[in-house]
């Protein structure tokens, strides 16, 4: 039977999953386990070795991960085995977490073990303590995984490496022994922003905060939108004011701030109210110099190293359809708010990206494809006008109130 | 008078320097300070704001950093002020550390504050607990700074950010409250290795370990050599077996694994014995495709993405002189051990980098420039021959014994 840390629920000690490739890091893992235990934390050792039999110190031997799909390295090809082993470990950790059977996760390794730990941890919930000691430090900044560069090789148990491992064990123990917050958190609303939509966004944010909400701002950089959507799926937000949907047009046109095709699906999946604004859908970020494909378009140098390209009416149409179709599927109230006088500080009368036809193309596409359940409102204002911002914030607050008042839908 | 945390030495609580730009992150810093205090850790708040007056919560206000050279941001130009402020904070922390007045350092910030904290921490000693919460996660892997991606903006005190900051405070508290190691560490020897010198290096390493030393291996990647030298200056090693000095030729020829011109100076500065071997000085790493400048030379594809270039006799001469001149300045015993049959697994009879003339050029330059005090030994063996490796290890052990037996030089 597969080991489960719940089996000694009698103990109240916090439990930490300790991931390592025991075929090469057995002594190192044992040292960390001892360090955790000396701080009152119970280690649960998971062996991520890519071949061979696990030693006795493994609470979860390689065979248990293989039963979950982990494969063995063959010859010099380790990539496939690394992927399947990390996925198996992630599945195990997710189940333990759902059972409340583990309070933190700590991985140690070089290029191989560090990569697998990172991979196994990256989809674990925000806030769950996770730490990787590794020689190869890489982070997209989208996950709250603590990274500790080992500086020296994770090999042997010399005094330098022991110092690093002791700090790692101390940090993990400190996190899992953390005092829970005593004050009840306020409900949170997520917002997306960009430099060119901030003036209005700050007004909307203040209005939401005044109504009793925490507002969490994400920069629409691609990574920002992805992170917002992941946290939305984790149930962190009461609603979304998607003020800056430039990531949609950047996906369509090949811009840098691309959050992928799944953008604008999380609120619908999580069943929470959302208000969508076409903020900065006039803007496409590219690397300098300006690519030939965009040479004929209007452009603007935001910084000496940051050229911006004007999107076209055809692209705006596709964004409008994208918005309408995603919102059509929402079980919770959803609305589109359109500032008719421009979508960014560049897209304003006399500005470098002024293009009423392109803006209208968005509105027409939204109205063509949105069902009646999705309210579409055009306001004769610019996105950065305070009145528009307050109206958008108020709309979201109304949708949240309506959702809270509505009877729970039947299964 | 400048604030010093020693002023209440009566308290036995561990002290943590907390760095932030209080003009924008005052509430966030206060939250972290409360979280530290609730865990029995005393925070010492250092204000790294780039302009304005510090609020009362600053234990070290901006004026104190300005007295140490911090400048103010002018207009949009923040770069200079960031550099001087980080340097001032680093000086302060170094002094506190020397006085035993601080047990850890924690920085929080976005792009600006995170960068400054990293900068202030990067020269603090290995093992001293240091953690940065930041939106921009970058690490060369050369410093043991724990990095916690904030995922959300470090702005406001919403529940998500509080979760991140609570984990940061918990991790820092766990590190500074760490139990000291009870077993006496073994003395350590540093070694440099490369794939093409590992076969012999592993034999030397085993011989050193059998003699009672911890061996800490650094890969001669540029970063590896720099890290070894930094830790050498911190006094971490009893001796150096500089088995793989390819970083010297890579500096001369413009290779990727360049550790800078100060390479091979740390053991001399620290006054510890060293044995230097010309391991892999036949090898220059370049990015593919092979640059025109090297087109006429012998090359070898180590991996499909890693081309290696053969160094020339002229470059070997320069490496030899570099080695001889640095060792000539050493107050401690120093030796050069030359494996006459080749310097890497490629530089071997019949191998792709076999070039006896280039190898001899190294030896001649060393012998020409080394003073009598530096022993130079040529062994009729290849670097990866076990006998050569054992002889090199034995030579270092003898030098360490001689250094320990020698009377302390008069001041």
Brief synopsis:
With 411 residues, chain A is of the alpha/beta class. Chain A has helices spanning 22-38, 62-66, 79-98, 111-121, 159-176, 198-210, 223-233, 246-253, 266-270, 313-328, 356-369, 386-405, and strands spanning 15-20, 42-47, 104-109, 130-134, 146-149, 188-193, 214-219, 239-242, 274-276, 283-285, 299-303, 306-310, 334-339, 375-379. The first copy, chain A, has two domains: 5-176, Rossmann fold, CATH 3.40.50; 188-404, Rossmann fold, CATH 3.40.50.
Assign the CATH class of the largest domain in chain A.
Answer: Alpha Beta
Q: What's the assembly state of these chains? A: homodimer
Estimate the strand proportion of chain A: 15-25%
Compute the number of strand runs of chain A: 14
* Tally of individual helices of chain A: 12
Principal-axis shape of chain A: elongated
Question: Helix-strand pattern of chain A, N to C?
Answer: EHEHHEHEEHEHEHEHHEEEEHEHEH
Largest sheet of chain A: 6 strands, parallel
Overall number of structural domains of chain A: 2
Spatial strand arrangement across the major sheet of chain A: 7-6-8-9-13-14
CATH topology of the largest domain in chain A: Rossmann fold
CATH architecture call of the largest domain in chain A: 3-Layer(aba) Sandwich
The pair of chains with the biggest contact is:
A-B, 59 and 58 residues
Q: What is the CATH homology-level superfamily of the largest domain in chain A?
A: Uncharacterised protein family UPF0261, NC domain
**How helical, in percent, are the residues of chain A?**
25-40%
InterPro entries (chains A, B): Tobamovirus_resist_UPF0261, UPF0261, UPF0261_C, UPF0261_N
Domain UPF0261 (chains A, B): 14-179, 186-399
Pfam families (chains A, B): UPF0261 (PF06792), UPF0261_C (PF23189)
